Amino acid sequence: MRQLLWVWMLLMALAFVNDRCHCCLQEERSGLLEIKAWFGHASDGSYRLEDWDKEDLNCCNWDRVACDNTTNRVIQLDLSGVNYDALEDLYLNASLFLPFKELVTLELSSNQLVGGLKNQGSLLSILFSLHGN
């Protein structure tokens, strides 16, 4: 009976540890996958984001992504050169970056960005001022 109690306690502890995954937030992981899809739709550049995988729950370990160690929120995105060799210019869909509430650094250089979609002026100005830091 005592062994059964220990086994039960061990199983409960393991369930608690597995439930406490130190992963990025689902909203931000989904946002990153949307960015990857957007680059894939807009150009052939999504292959530069090929390790961004919906099966990997911890997007903090993905290339080009950095997260805060405490909150696990995305604080840095390096998207430079993802659209480098595209044949056409891109109009940025700035709403793709709305899920990232603690984003501090956004690198968008070498992507042939020529502007943004209509009705996103204020959001674009925030993004480009963020990019300039």
Top CATH class: Alpha Beta
Helix content: 25-40%
Shape: elongated
In round numbers, the mean pLDDT is: 78
**Poorly predicted runs:** none
Question: Helices and strands: which structural class?
Answer: alpha/beta
In the CATH hierarchy, the third-tier topology is known as Leucine-rich repeat, LRR (right-handed beta-alpha superhelix)
Q: What is the radius of gyration?
A: 19 Å
CATH architecture call: Alpha-Beta Horseshoe
Rounded to the nearest angstrom, the distance between the terminal CA atoms is 63 Å
Strand coverage percent: 5-15%
Extended strand count: 5
The major beta sheet can be summarized as: 3 strands, mixed
Quick structural gist:
The protein has 133 residues and is α/β, with parallel strands linked by helices. It is built from three helices and five strands, in the order ααβββββα. Helix content is 35%, strand content 14%.
